[in-house]
Amino acid sequence: MDPSVGPVEELLDAAASRTTGEVERRAGRVVASHALWLCACETFDDAPTWLIYAVGDDGVGWQRVPEQVDVEDVVDAEHLTGCHPDPEGVLVWLRSERPRPWRRGRGDFPEDSYVYDELNRRIFRGEV
Fold first, then answer.
1. 102 and 89 in contact (C-beta within 8 Å)?
2. Staple 2 to which of 14, 47, 101, 114, CB 3.0 to 4.6 Å?
3. Source organism's superkingdom (predicted)?
Protein backbone atom coordinates (compact mmCIF):
# COMPACT_ATOMS: atom_id res chain seq x y z
CA MET A 1 0.00 0.00 0.00
CA ASP A 2 1.25 3.47 -0.82
CA PRO A 3 2.66 5.16 2.33
CA SER A 4 0.45 8.23 1.82
CA VAL A 5 -2.80 6.25 2.10
CA GLY A 6 -2.86 6.16 5.93
CA PRO A 7 -2.25 9.89 6.39
CA VAL A 8 -4.78 10.73 3.63
CA GLU A 9 -7.46 8.71 5.38
CA GLU A 10 -6.61 10.26 8.76
CA LEU A 11 -7.11 13.74 7.30
CA LEU A 12 -10.37 12.68 5.65
CA ASP A 13 -11.54 11.22 8.98
CA ALA A 14 -10.69 14.51 10.71
CA ALA A 15 -12.65 16.54 8.15
CA ALA A 16 -15.63 14.16 8.35
CA SER A 17 -15.59 14.22 12.16
CA ARG A 18 -16.55 17.91 12.08
CA THR A 19 -19.73 17.06 10.16
CA THR A 20 -22.94 17.24 12.15
CA GLY A 21 -25.45 16.35 9.43
CA GLU A 22 -26.57 12.89 8.42
CA VAL A 23 -25.50 11.27 5.17
CA GLU A 24 -28.54 10.90 2.94
CA ARG A 25 -28.85 7.56 1.15
CA ARG A 26 -31.18 6.38 -1.56
CA ALA A 27 -31.20 2.81 -2.87
CA GLY A 28 -27.91 2.18 -1.07
CA ARG A 29 -26.17 5.15 -2.69
CA VAL A 30 -24.91 8.32 -1.00
CA VAL A 31 -26.95 11.33 -2.14
CA ALA A 32 -24.92 14.54 -2.32
CA SER A 33 -24.88 17.90 -4.04
CA HIS A 34 -21.13 17.66 -4.79
CA ALA A 35 -18.89 14.61 -4.93
CA LEU A 36 -15.34 13.90 -6.00
CA TRP A 37 -13.62 10.60 -6.74
CA LEU A 38 -9.84 10.30 -6.53
CA CYS A 39 -8.40 7.20 -8.16
CA ALA A 40 -4.69 6.55 -7.77
CA CYS A 41 -4.74 3.73 -10.30
CA GLU A 42 -1.61 4.96 -12.06
CA THR A 43 0.67 4.61 -9.04
CA PHE A 44 3.16 1.81 -8.53
CA ASP A 45 1.90 0.96 -5.03
CA ASP A 46 -1.66 -0.04 -4.25
CA ALA A 47 -3.98 2.81 -3.37
CA PRO A 48 -7.75 2.95 -3.04
CA THR A 49 -10.24 5.08 -4.89
CA TRP A 50 -11.61 7.66 -2.47
CA LEU A 51 -15.03 9.24 -2.73
CA ILE A 52 -15.43 12.58 -0.96
CA TYR A 53 -18.89 14.13 -0.84
CA ALA A 54 -20.88 17.00 0.60
CA VAL A 55 -23.04 16.37 3.66
CA GLY A 56 -25.64 18.92 4.76
CA ASP A 57 -24.76 22.60 4.43
CA ASP A 58 -21.12 22.51 5.50
CA GLY A 59 -20.08 18.93 6.15
CA VAL A 60 -18.14 16.35 4.25
CA GLY A 61 -18.04 12.57 4.21
CA TRP A 62 -15.82 10.05 2.51
CA GLN A 63 -15.47 6.38 1.82
CA ARG A 64 -13.38 3.99 -0.19
CA VAL A 65 -14.89 2.76 -3.42
CA PRO A 66 -14.39 -0.99 -3.69
CA GLU A 67 -12.38 -2.29 -6.63
CA GLN A 68 -14.42 -3.16 -9.70
CA VAL A 69 -17.29 -0.93 -8.49
CA ASP A 70 -18.35 2.06 -10.58
CA VAL A 71 -18.41 5.31 -8.58
CA GLU A 72 -21.89 6.05 -9.89
CA ASP A 73 -23.10 2.85 -8.22
CA VAL A 74 -22.00 4.31 -4.87
CA VAL A 75 -23.05 7.97 -5.13
CA ASP A 76 -25.90 9.98 -6.62
CA ALA A 77 -24.45 13.48 -6.90
CA GLU A 78 -25.78 16.53 -8.66
CA HIS A 79 -22.18 17.56 -9.39
CA LEU A 80 -19.67 14.71 -9.74
CA THR A 81 -16.09 14.86 -10.95
CA GLY A 82 -12.80 13.14 -10.28
CA CYS A 83 -9.20 12.70 -11.22
CA HIS A 84 -6.27 10.31 -11.10
CA PRO A 85 -3.74 11.90 -8.73
CA ASP A 86 -1.03 10.01 -6.92
CA PRO A 87 -1.74 9.48 -3.20
CA GLU A 88 1.04 11.89 -2.24
CA GLY A 89 -0.72 14.60 -4.27
CA VAL A 90 -3.95 13.93 -2.38
CA LEU A 91 -2.03 14.21 0.89
CA VAL A 92 -0.48 17.52 -0.13
CA TRP A 93 -3.94 18.80 -1.11
CA LEU A 94 -5.51 17.69 2.19
CA ARG A 95 -2.71 19.47 4.05
CA SER A 96 -3.86 22.59 2.12
CA GLU A 97 -0.43 22.94 0.52
CA ARG A 98 -1.94 22.84 -2.98
CA PRO A 99 -5.38 23.96 -4.25
CA ARG A 100 -5.96 20.69 -6.11
CA PRO A 101 -4.73 17.09 -5.65
CA TRP A 102 -2.69 17.15 -8.84
CA ARG A 103 0.32 19.12 -10.03
CA ARG A 104 -0.38 22.37 -11.83
CA GLY A 105 -1.86 21.76 -15.27
CA ARG A 106 -2.59 18.04 -14.73
CA GLY A 107 -6.24 17.90 -13.70
CA ASP A 108 -8.43 15.41 -15.52
CA PHE A 109 -11.54 17.59 -15.62
CA PRO A 110 -10.46 21.17 -14.80
CA GLU A 111 -13.80 22.52 -16.07
CA ASP A 112 -15.34 20.99 -12.95
CA SER A 113 -13.21 23.11 -10.61
CA TYR A 114 -16.35 24.37 -8.84
CA VAL A 115 -16.78 20.88 -7.34
CA TYR A 116 -13.26 21.05 -5.87
CA ASP A 117 -13.93 24.61 -4.67
CA GLU A 118 -17.07 23.53 -2.81
CA LEU A 119 -15.42 20.50 -1.24
CA ASN A 120 -12.32 22.57 -0.37
CA ARG A 121 -14.61 25.02 1.44
CA ARG A 122 -16.09 22.18 3.45
CA ILE A 123 -12.85 20.29 4.17
CA PHE A 124 -10.80 23.32 5.12
CA ARG A 125 -13.49 25.39 6.86
CA GLY A 126 -11.88 27.37 9.62
CA GLU A 127 -8.45 25.89 8.96
CA VAL A 128 -7.01 27.90 6.10
1. yes
2. 47
3. Bacteria
